[in-house]
Amino acid sequence: MIIACTIDNNYIRHCAVMLKSLQLSNPDSTISVYIMHGAIDAAERARLAAYLGDFLASVSFIQLDEEMLAGFPVFGHVTLATYFRLLLPAALPHAVEKVIYLDSDLIVVDSLNEMWESPLGENSIGAVEEHNQDFDRRRLGLAEGSLVFNAGAMLINLALWRENNILRSGLEFARTHPERIKHWDQDVLNSLLEARWQPLDWRWNALPHLWMHPDYTDPATPLGHQAEAARARPAVIHFAGSGVAKPWHHRCTHPWRHRYLEIREQTPWAGLPLEEAPDTSLGEGLRRLRFRAKSAGKAVLSRLRP
Hints:
By secondary structure, the chain is an alpha/beta fold. Helix content is about 35%, strand content about 15%.
């Protein structure tokens, strides 16, 4: 099984928890991991590498040039590292034709073998749909009936990504449509892969709304019935969102928060105090006004041209 993830300085410790949870839930699997990152603290990277080397078959750190993405829209808790997903086709060895991508703000609580073996047909990825379908579909200009997916846990056909030149297309989209970007590279991928992705069972990316949104907590409704099945047997618990959505913040109320904290106690970052959740409402609004995606996209594309 091949896993890819991205980190920045803020997520090194959370990546350790995520990958430890992966190993605990897949004890009989041989797991190779590719960790993409920009400029990060060398001592913390070495600390992470030493820890992961104790229980993973193979760990490769791939440093990418963040200057290629300078000016791409980021705000709140997100950094440019989120766009590294777009660089997967070029960053990973060409021999890697299939990979599971996992965000670092999640934990794995069941085997991923079934997800790894999921048939994709002619689709580029397998992913789980988002919950705010109508709003995101209109915002991205997708056709009526098209589904929008969450990019935090994906099974990716890298060979098809390379064949369809998703890297260049993604960077071009960020350059020409910065006004559509709210969820960063997730919006880019949804726009490029409309109707070319395979919906997966919700258990492969159990998002917070399954526990916290009233449309999904009533088992008498169709959405609630499907959510109940995912809650009963989740495989990936994704703490998507900012601030109190994260299990390392003291005001987080997610029911799986304690499992994250239990696993963290098995890492070199055990014993850390819980963090205060920042008030990002004003800051995010101001940062949105400073988008410079068009000029950044031009710079990236010029570097890619032969």
